[in-house]
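Much of our argument rests on the idea that a fold can be written as discrete symbols. The record that follows shows the chain in one-letter code together with its fold in token form.
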Amino acid sequence: MMSRTMLESAAASFVCTFVLIPFYKFTYGESGSGGGLEEIYSLITAIIPSNPITPFIEGNMLQVCIIAIITGTVMIILGNRVDQVKIFASQCSSLFLSIVEAVCKLLPIYIYASLTILFVQNGIGMILTLWKPIAVCIGINAALALIRMLMVSFKYKISLPVLFKKIYPTFIIALTTASSMSAFSTSLEVNETKLGIDKSYNNFATPLKISCMA
């Protein structure tokens, strides 16, 4: 039995070594060669957090999402045995969203004040020297926004003017502040009250989208 176990372990080690060879770089004398998958392996290992605290301190959203996926999967598997944990997580989520909403409502004021100070310090001439790239950016973003609205309008069979009227509060804040985070609280409200998006889905998808864009 012992010899069989040792053979199985040796075979498993050999297979793992063979599979992982492309992910590592080997140096022979002064020359070196590496597998083309080394960068992919580094990327995969980079998204796995070393501990559950560091990603939140460093603001690594990808690692935070990995922790959330693992935690959510385990909670689903355990089912009713973690009902209290689910309630606690839901309450923490509501508290966090309330804090973020309050902060985001103040962001437009901060951004407008910063722009005003910038114009006062550098003069309106700064805008005149940059009007071409600004116009190009506005044109490209306006075209992309129009394309997306047309796609939504066609998919859900809603007229474009009606759709624009519904999303106008979010659109105007995001446009004038150039910050999706500033429009976060308004997005939550518009998605739920005017677009009819389910609250549980809205509270999950909207923060995730803004976090990925940040």
About this structure: The two ends are 56 Å apart (CA to CA). The first strand starts at residue 25 and ends at 28. The chain is about 75% helix and 5% strand. Strands lie at 25-28, 31-34.
